[in-house]
Specification:
The chain is of the alpha+beta class and 309 residues long. The protein has a single domain, classed as 2,3-Dihydroxybiphenyl 1,2-Dioxygenase, domain 1. The chain has five helices and 16 strands. The termini are far apart. InterPro entries: cNMP-bd_dom (IPR000595), Extradiol_RC_dioxygenase (IPR052537), Glyas_Bleomycin-R_OHBP_Dase (IPR029068), Glyas_Fos-R_dOase_dom (IPR004360), VOC_core (IPR037523). This is Ring-cleaving dioxygenase. One of its GO terms (molecular function) is dioxygenase activity. Keywords: Dioxygenase, Oxidoreductase.
């Protein structure tokens, strides 16, 4: 049992247009852009991070906007929806707000006794706002009033042809099954950070998903520090998973492995955080370049399209 895992850390997806992506999360959803940097493996592509005021683990949605990328195709072996928590009683505000912002795919639902509002992102990304009473996490004071604002992740929902092996992995990762409704099983992490839930939706006849714009690239789970991460890495490898070496991502350290259902998982540290190279009052304003690519700054700045806040 990996008691070191404390819920989600971040969710990383792909997009087609950096400006559209930025506007959607900051102007329409009211999150803060906490970091503007580049893809470590493709430094001519942005890596944009959005979250609460400090980019607290469990609140951060990140994107790789690849120009001209084809839209992904929904299917099995992927994250279907990313779920955010909003205060109890705020969905009427959000329905009116998202309608006024011309957000597509609005649909009110109830699942596991929770009221939710589903909607689509600019590239067909799947999202839902879930009402939760008593969430202590504070919303960012941005384009959306804090009394109704997004407080962080609620969880993610994965689409799988068979959930058996992934369910066993989640149990090993400190999650336990707590409810089932139809073909969806809910897992909750013990002693989590608020971003506590993983839902597994079983779709035995679904075709495999095709990654592209609007697809989740990977889901990251939070551990406190590098020592805890190394313990998790050893335990996963002892169980038979092929896990990458520890990779320095500037704002956290990361390891990756592929799940039986096909979804890419990351284990990320809560340290050092997004204020390691910027004052908290100015997070996400300047373009930050990873050390190994700093010598390419002038070239990168010429290639990257400008983002107007």
């Amino acid at each position: 049992m990996l008691h070191q895992i404390k819920g989600l850390h971040h969710v990383t997806s792909m997009a087609a247009d950096a400006q559209e992506n930025n506007d959607f999360f900051t102007a329409k959803l009211g999150l803060r852009r906490v970091k503007k940097t580049v893809n470590f493996d493709a430094p001519d592509v942005y890596h944009l991070y959005y979250g609460d005021e400090l980019g607290t683990p469990g609140s951060v949605m990140t994107y790789f906007p690849f120009p001209h990328i084809a839209r992904g195709r929904r299917g099995s072996g992927e994250v279907g929806d990313t779920l955010f928590t909003v205060p109890q009683g705020s969905l009427s505000f959000w329905k009116a707000h998202l309608t006024a912002q011309d957000i597509r795919g609005l649909k009110e639902e109830e699942l596991f006794g929770e009221k939710r509002l589903r909607f689509s992102g600019p590239d067909g990304d799947g999202f839902a706002l879930v009402e939760k009473d008593g969430d202590p996490r504070a919303a960012f004071n941005g384009a959306v009033p804090t009394d109704e604002g997004i407080q962080g992740f609620h969880g993610v929902s994965m689409r799988l042809r068979d959930q058996g092996a992934t369910a066993e992995l989640l149990k090993f990762m400190n999650y336990e099954p707590i409810d089932r409704q139809g073909n969806v099983t809910r897992f909750a992490v013990r002693d989590g950070n608020g971003a506590d839930f993983v839902d597994l939706e079983t779709l035995p006849d679904a075709a495999p998903a095709r990654p592209g714009a609007g697809s989740v690239h990977h889901v990251a789970f939070a551990v406190e520090d590098r020592a805890a991460q190394l313990e998790v890495r050893k335990a996963l490898m002892d169980t038979g998973y092929h896990v990458t070496p520890v990779i320095d991502r500037d704002y956290f350290w990361a390891i990756y492995f592929r799940t039986p259902g096909g979804v890419l998982f990351e284990i990320a540290t809560n340290e050092p955080g997004f204020d390691r190279d910027e004052d908290t009052a100015h997070l996400g304003e300047a373009l930050r370049i990873p050390r190994q690519h700093e010598h390419l700054r002038s070239q990168i700045e010429r290639i990257l399209p400008p983002i107007h806040n």
